Amino acid sequence: MNKGLNSMRNGMRQPQVVALVMLFCSAIFVPLAKADTLQFTGSSLAGAGTFTFPVGADQHLDVSNALIGNFLESAGFCTSTCTVTGGYLDLDSGAQISQSNGVYTFDAGGQLSIFGQVSSLGVNSVTELVSASFLSGQTLQFSGTTGTFRGLLDPTTIVLDSALSTETPVSGTDTESEFRVSFDSSSGTYSGKIAQSTVTITTDPPLPATEPSSLLLLGSGLMSLSWSRIRTRLS
Question: CA–CA separation, 98 vs 172, rounded Å?
Answer without folding.
Answer: 23
